[in-house]
From TrEMBL:
PANTHER family: GLUCONATE OPERON TRANSCRIPTIONAL REPRESSOR, TRANSCRIPTIONAL REGULATOR, GNTR FAMILY. It comes from the Bacteria. This is GntR family transcriptional regulator. Residues 16-83 form the HTH gntR-type domain. Keywords: DNA-binding, Transcription, Transcription regulation. InterPro entries: GntR_C (IPR011711), TF_FadR/GntR_C (IPR008920), Tscrpt_reg_HTH_GntR (IPR000524), WH-like_DNA-bd_sf (IPR036388), WH_DNA-bd_sf (IPR036390).
Amino acid sequence: MAVTQTTDAPARPGKQMLSERVYDRLRKDVLHGVFGPGDPLKPQELAKQQGVSLAVMREVLVRLVGEGLATRLPNRGFAAPTPSDSRWQQLTEARLALEPDMLRMAIERGDLEWETRVRAAHHRLARTPEFDPGHTAYYSDAWAEAHRGFHRTLLEGCGNAILLETFDRLWTASEVARRLASHHTPDRSAPDEHGELERAALARDPIAATDALVRHLSRTTAALSPATGTSI
């Protein structure tokens, strides 16, 4: 008797592409402040605006929740994240527990190729304008990507893929707070902070490098603290 083999149904490329397009657009809207902190993200309204099914929009919103770019409200749907929430304190706490150790490992393990990539990533960051002409409310997409690239390159020398995956998740979840902090800290000199990080890391000075990183990570949370202006 012939045996019928069963396989999982293949994914529908069209639906995947549609979901990805809607995800990219909604993600940019959240990051660019089209939806302000706490604004509702109503699945039915968004699905109608984007011309997609309610199922696709809910899938996109759940994905944003997983990245920290949306909040799920019990019995009330979804909303844009609120940076003053304790979540941002927790994100900073998680990054402070993770990234200094990763940086120490990178300084210990990183080779000449790592040093070269760190220099290149810092050069790109230093030469990329923080804001697009005429738009100073939020960091530009180009600067945000250069910023992420510099920090990730610094830590890549640790050689631990699991730690780097965790860093990626925390970075994405922190992105809204970083962009909002751009107009909360007008006197902050991010270029100086990044230069200090680069110099200490390439000097193979783990104490100076991790101290600089801790200060750098804490300042975004400090800027967004509504009550005391201090970080964890």
